[in-house]
Amino acid sequence: MKPLGCQVHSVRELAAKDYLGTLRRLAEIGYKGVEIGRLGDCGPKEVRKVLDEMGVACIGLHGAIPNPEGISEAVDTLGALGCKTCLCNLEPPHYESADLVRSAAERFAQARQLLAPHGVRLVYHNHWWEMKRLDGQLAYDLFFQTAGEALAEIDVYWAAVGQAVFGEGDVVELVGRYRSRLPLMHLKDGPLTGGEPRAANVAVGSGAMDIPACVKAADPDVLEWLIVEFDSCETDILQAVRDSYDYITRQGLAAGAR
Length: 258
Prior knowledge:
Layout: E1 4-7, H1 12-17, H2 19-29, E2 33-36, H3 44-54, E3 57-62, H4 71-81, E4 85-88, H5 98-115, E5 121-125, E6 133-134, E7 137-138, H6 139-147, E8 151-155, H7 156-166, H8 171-177, E9 184-187, H9 211-217, E10 225-228, H10 237-250
Parallel strand pairs: 1-2, 1-10, 2-3, 3-4, 4-5, 5-8, 8-9, 9-10
Antiparallel strand pairs: 6-7
Helix pairs in contact: 2-3, 3-4, 5-6, 7-8, 8-9
């Protein structure tokens, strides 16, 4: 069974007030790892110290695609965190045309090649706008065709929302198609409406997503972590994060620390 982590972005308002204390609260719930975006006012070594004390892994560091001048800084930060995974995404303007997608994918491929000698892998995280068609093919497919042997972190909810917005596709099929390059999967849930892509998330297992089917479609020999994430939440976020943990672990989809 794969370990369960949480993206700290989910609890960003709590983290803004007490970053290290929030990490401890996630560990107390039972999460075995955290995916980090911003470090708040803390340094990476300070964060690493708390994670080590709690027995929690740093799954990955999420940010912009590193440019050639920023590779050393990215490698140093990851090293201080004890992590070898750099995650990134692209905003909607990069998906306005096939040429823009190819250009961004080429930049991603260059960064991936520059990070590789340092033992760092670069992984792409999707949102909903990659699920449109450009020049007759899925923009997400076009990105990966251009980016070479790139790895994916499929956010199953965002993929399903994009498929609802653009009126085609199936998230379970997408996971199955990319299973050979899918070490990380984001689990989130919600109403799954195409009318308002940014509708608030709900605790995993209480929305419209078929989470078990998504997890089952991944390759267990490639998949390393399942990661809970909330982009927004209209209820108490810490309770929603706890409820998500309880659902996923009780369903036997991933392993927690309790």
